[in-house]
Structures are given as structure tokens and as C-alpha cells.
């Protein structure tokens, strides 16, 4: 039986438009001020040094690092440091009530059903763990973070790498064949399946005719007890 479900956020639990039209512009508008105002104190100075290491430029100025981050944003680069910085900025937005985290209406009821069935639920997203926690604790459905057993970001590896899913399995202590991954991205699901996981692809928009994964249009359609392990 399935013992743990790991779900993506963008396009899976959450409308992609919330991420691209609310979160990304909010962080971009505040990025330069946030970094310049905090460059000599934690956590900003630590993050800036991590970015210098990431781009192999130990002497890079704050202005150069800001330009690098804008470039990463334009490229949709899955930079762990960028995601961490965005997460800190988004935290202020959630706490100040500037926005709440969007969740599709089918997500929380399904999570409650799975939790009642003693299935652990985890999040795995390229966004930082801190930003994931804020979305689920300040969501349109209220604070639903208590339904979740843990969070993973790219510190365990990229989402299209097979090793990332093996790392998550080891960290949760659940054998790979009892893990179920939910995502809208076929390539992520391919990597999870290659690692030994079960998979379901969320189709919130246009069908993916090239996919060989089980497909569902909402969390209502996902019945982990019916998935053979």
C-alpha cells in the first residue's frame, strides 16, 4: 500500500498564475531593496555569500549579485539561493497580509482523507522550504500545515533527477515502491518512476498526450488505496 504521498506545488496544488502573477512580481519588486538594506546582517549576508559561491565570484558586489538574480529570474533558473531569497521576501508578504497562498479547492479535502488513512503527506517543490511552509500556513483554506509531515526543496536534488527521489525516500524512511508522487510535469514524474515511485500526473489544463503516467484532473480522482505497490 501507499504509505507516503509527495506533491508538487505549482500547477498541482496551486494555480500557476498565483506563482507567476503574484509571487514572482512581488519578490522582483522588492529584491534590490531587501538585499541592500540587509547586506551586513543575517540572513541576507549569508545568502549573498552563498550566491557568490554558486556563481564562483567571491568578490562580486551586491549590485552585481542583484543583476545576477534578475537574470536568474528571467531564465526561471532553479537556483537554490534565489529560491531562498524569494522565500524570505514572500514571508513578509504572507505575514503582512499582502496575499494568501492559493490552493485548489480539491486539495485540502483529499489531504484530510489521506491523513485519516494514516498516509504521510509531503511537499517537494523548487521553491524553498520556508516559502512552502508559508503558503500552506497562510493559504486560502487557512493554516493547513498540520496536514503535512514535511517539506523538501532542491537541497535534496533537482526535480528531474532520479537521485532526488531516492534521497527523499531515505529521509522519510518509506520504501520507494510505497511512495506516490503528484506533479503536473511529465519529466519530474519520469524521474520519480525511474527511482521506483508510483506516480500520478495532475492535468489542470491541456492534456499531456505524450505521458504514460496515470492522470487525474483533481485530487478527488486520486485513490492511493487503489494503486498497487
From TrEMBL:
Keyword Cell inner membrane: no
Requisite cofactors: Mg(2+)
Catalytic activity: 5-methylsulfanyl-2,3-dioxopentyl phosphate + H2O = 1,2-dihydroxy-5-(methylsulfanyl)pent-1-en-3-one + phosphate
Compositional bias ranges of the Basic and acidic residues kind: 220-229
Cofactor binding summary note: Binds 1 Mg(2+) ion per subunit.
Sequence segments annotated as region (Disordered): 205-229
Keywords: Amino-acid biosynthesis, Hydrolase, Magnesium, Metal-binding, Methionine biosynthesis
Pathway connected to this protein: Amino-acid biosynthesis; L-methionine biosynthesis via salvage pathway; L-methionine from S-methyl-5-thio-alpha-D-ribose 1-phosphate: step 4/6; Amino-acid biosynthesis; L-methionine biosynthesis via salvage pathway; L-methionine from S-methyl-5-thio-alpha-D-ribose 1-phosphate: step 3/6
Gene Ontology terms: biological process: L-methionine salvage from methylthioadenosine
InterPro entries on file: Enolase-ppase_E1 (IPR023943), HAD-like_sf (IPR036412), HAD_sf (IPR023214)
Compositional bias ranges of the Polar residues kind: 208-218
Record-listed E.C. numbers: 3.1.3.77
Recorded GO MF terms: 2,3-diketo-5-methylthiopentyl-1-phosphate enolase activity; 2-hydroxy-3-keto-5-methylthiopentenyl-1-phosphate phosphatase activity; acireductone synthase activity; magnesium ion binding
Quaternary structure (record): Monomer.
Entry similarity comment: Belongs to the HAD-like hydrolase superfamily. MasA/MtnC family.
Annotated function: Bifunctional enzyme that catalyzes the enolization of 2,3-diketo-5-methylthiopentyl-1-phosphate (DK-MTP-1-P) into the intermediate 2-hydroxy-3-keto-5-methylthiopentenyl-1-phosphate (HK-MTPenyl-1-P), which is then dephosphorylated to form the acireductone 1,2-dihydroxy-3-keto-5-methylthiopentene (DHK-MTPene).
Record-given protein name: Enolase-phosphatase E1
